[in-house]
Prior knowledge:
There is one protein chain. The protein is of the alpha/beta class. The protein folds into two domains: about 25-130, no CATH class; about 170-320 and about 325-330, 3 Solenoid (Pectate Lyase C-like), CATH 2.160.20. The protein is built from six helices and 24 strands. The protein has helices at about 1-20, 45-55, 105-110, 305-310, 310-315, 325-330, and strands at about 25-30, 45, 65, 70-75, 75-80, 85-90, 95-100, 115-120, 125, 130-135, 145, 150-155, 155-160, 165-170, 170-175, 180-190, 190-195, 200-210, 220-225, 225-230, 240, 250-255, 280-285, 300. The chain has a twelve-stranded parallel beta sheet with strand order 2-1-3-6-9-12-15-17-19-22-23-24. Strands 4, 5, 7, 8, 10, 11, 13, 14, 16, 18, 20 and 21 form a twelve-stranded parallel beta sheet that branches.
Amino acid sequence: MKRLHRFVLVTSTAILLSSSLCAQDVHVRVSPDSTGTTSSRDDFPTIQMALDHAPDPGPGGRLYLEIAPGVYHERVIVTQNRPHTTFLGTGQKPSDVVITAAQNAKSAGGTFLSSSITVDGEAFQADNITFENTAGNTGQAVAISVRSDRAIFKHCRFLGDQDTLFADYGRQYYVDSYIQGGVDFIFGNAAAVFDNNEIHIIRPGYLTAQSRTSLDQNTGYVFRRAHITAEDLGDKGFYLGRPWRPFARVVFLSSEMPTTLSPQGWAPWTKGGSIGTAYYAEFDSRGPGARVGSRVEGSHQLTADAAQSFSPEHFLAGADHWNPIEEAAKLP
């Protein structure tokens, strides 16, 4: 019995050591000046080459792409078999590292194929990066598509016009970032919180086109402490959102509204309609656009207690009790 006990103890120790060895983080460098090739292990000239050929961190590990300043003219896909990947821009500011392309729905064969960057791997993170689509006012042209549960974007910029940010699936957290567009430029059906971001509209249009399809879905967009800014829109205004799907849900908490925001705040999907079963709400809106008494019929003004349920810690917790604020604090 003593020999069997010793064998079990040694075997268990070996398994634990093996697991710890498999769970090591991997750090690779990406730089336009790199001379790395597909056989490299830690130095690559493009982001996609790094994703395709960097070593696998193993279960519990994370792949860090430390991206040097430069403009990366490439379309990037973070596949499902690259979970736990982090993009770290090593410049002084987000504009120092730009991932950019210029496809639109017509040239790419559809809106969902136009993305400059597509993120499908779970627990993706990005810090100090710009994601861009330069197709301009040519129809749908996505800068980034995010289908990653427990995704975090910190100190990032998202630049486009129509359909800039496709926040489509999973729990997502955007903090201290800048998002720019013209029409429906934050859209999809993720459960996403936008915390302390500048949201900038460049022409008359709609900030959001959320697409919740059922009351049973724990999805929607929450903007907390947003600073909404706008170009000179002349005598036209813009709206906080319109419902892409019947049960769209968007909430603004303690956010700054500019004078160019339409007094109605929210718009139906088609002219002359209503917001129907969509859930549109505000709490403690501020600034010259906070004319809450003029908001469209069917929208809501929340109490402080009701607003608390939309905090990141509550809205994004899930069954695994994910704390996005705590995770984001670990990034630089």
